Amino acid sequence: MDGHIYKSFDRELHDLKESLLYVGSRVERSIASAITALEQRDTALAAQVINDDDMIDAKEVEIDEFCLRLLALRQPAARDLRFITTAIKINYDLERIGDMAVNICERVEELIREPQLKPYITLPQMATTVQLMLKESLNAFVNEDPALARKVIEDDTKVDNFLDQIFHELLAHMMKDLSTTSRAIRLLFISKYLERIADHAVNIAELVIFMVEGTIVRHRKQSS
Amino acid sequence: MDGHIYKSFDRELHDLKESLLYVGSRVERSIASAITALEQRDTALAAQVINDDDMIDAKEVEIDEFCLRLLALRQPAARDLRFITTAIKINYDLERIGDMAVNICERVEELIREPQLKPYITLPQMATTVQLMLKESLNAFVNEDPALARKVIEDDTKVDNFLDQIFHELLAHMMKDLSTTSRAIRLLFISKYLERIADHAVNIAELVIFMVEGTIVRHRKQSS
Description:
2 copies of one chain form a homodimer. The first copy, chain A, is mostly helical. The first copy, chain A, has helices at about 10-40, 45-75, 80-110, 120-140, 145-175, 180-215.
């Protein structure tokens, strides 16, 4: 992605895909590490995710600049134009997802200061689902695969169900023992951050379907 | 914004600004109506906001298409290119803000089915602040005004303070009477949706500063 003008345009588009997949994999790793930090009460790992976000942000700015250069120098026609502008939006989504991983780690740092409320079972499952949705939404983009994009959108009901389940589990804890409330609410926030990551994956999937088929998909959540 | 090719490019950029401001004002109105629906327990108004979102979405797709046409037909140079790609991202933020107003109304519809937990004082104040941030972020964009954008970013601490205050008020209610928990959590979610709208306004402000000055502003939240 060094943007030498003598590269072929196809090669540049290929580089753009690779770069987005690379940032996507970094962001996925941040989510995974954030949940590991929660489970293992690992302050250093949480701090590392927060630190790494600057590197991810820098990479995203680089991708954005690369897209602008492609638009300016290559003046692409309809199909490539839509591909590049979609890449700009997906890159913007990835930046926000990175921020969510940071937010999770901030809550983890707070949670570690108190005894663990409960064993974490549903949250890691929810995180695994969300990571898969993110990975598949990016694969749907680079392979221009609307079927895979539709799978991502369907998987969002799993996330809603996880959220409901976590919500009720935490409510039960609060009901039984009021002293758990602030920890329960922090865990609830973490599940909401995961839900937002899933929302971004769904956004990406919708962009892919629109890019390939020109069909607008508007997914409306009915979450608790 | 009918995109006739005989229009001047300046005129088209002007139309683009007007369209974004129009969608922005519609979205602001949705936020205001959502909070009015909460305060006045007005199911019909909540339903109307949810319905109106389709219209807002359609307008956003139109703006997106218009930006693509400008990129394809006008092949703008550096400055205008950055303006248009920034408009694409802001338009994307506005769509998400519209979704948040819908989410608020869904929680309002649930809240109306139960007695009102408490008089709402802080939430409407928070909503007013958030609406102003949105309006000013869009004005900062159309007027290319980084000083106003910086004010928006600074105002975000007010939103964090409102969120903290609401969080503690609701926690106190839950502690006193466990039967209020589900209502308190719905209100907490509404305050989180408002926080997310503020985040989008901050995103827009950051985009404006980057567009005008080329400076990357990364705002990291420390919210509860």
